[in-house]
Amino acid sequence: MLRSLAKASLAGGLGSRKEMRNTLIGQGIVNGIVSSLQATLADVPVYTEAVGQEMAKPYLLVKLQSVSHDQRMNGRFARAYAFDIEVHSETYAKAYEWLEQMLEVLVEIEAEDGPLRGTDVKAEMKEGVLHVNVSYVVQLMKQATKPPYMHQLEQRGLVAQGG
Q1: How far apart are CA 22 and CA 3, in angstroms?
Q2: Which residue from 12, 71, 82, 140 lies 20 to 30 Å from 91 (Cα-Cα)?
Q3: CA–CA separation, 38 vs 26, rounded Å?
Q4: What angle, rounded to 10 degrees, do the helices at 25-40 and 92-106 form?
Q5: How far apart are CA 13 and CA 11, in angstroms?
Q6: Beta strands 59-71 and 46-47, pairing class
Q7: Which of 123, 120, 118, 88 is nearest to 106 (CA)?
């Protein structure tokens, strides 16, 4: 069983950590991205799945691109989630205007287990769609299993009496 070591407060340092709820970590990050984008770009619909070929512009599409899981020392792991956010707008100017607002929001999102910092934020225009890539790293720790307690000790054999 892995538990998240996400910081309860970014300013709190390494001492303030809390355990993640029993939800999918990636889905919690997606929910944090979507709610942050909806709060900033209130007039733009944000989707997590393509609904159909003929979706009406403007809209944003948040997709989980890749996940990497690296083992660290002492049962600790770092799991990185890379996202691709597609910005579909009528004009390039509007897409780049939204990009400026998104860059401020994606730097720090509020996920289900606390704030997460976005890294490797990049933007690229491909075939009329602006792709914004961002990664979030979550530190995990494997919970150690406790050995069962001894209930009763039976002695077999004799104790030597020396003299």
Answers
A1: 9
A2: 82
A3: 18
A4: 120
A5: 6
A6: parallel
A7: 118
Task: Report the amino acid identity of residue 68.
Answer: S
* Cα distance between residue 67 and residue 79, in whole Å: 7
- Write the pLDDT tens digit of every residue in 133-155: 999 999 888 777 777 776 776 76
* 22-66 pLDDT tens trace: 457 889 999 999 999 999 999 999 999 877 767 788 999 999 999
Q: What does the alpha-carbon distance between residue 88 and residue 94 come to, in Å, rounded to a whole number?
A: 10
Torsion, Cα 107 67 54 39, to 10 degrees, reads -30
* Lookup: tokens for 58: 């403007």
3-class DSSP state for residue 55?
coil
- The whole-angstrom separation of Cα 136 and Cα 97 is 23
pTM equals 0.72
CA–CA dist 94, 44 (Å, integer): 11
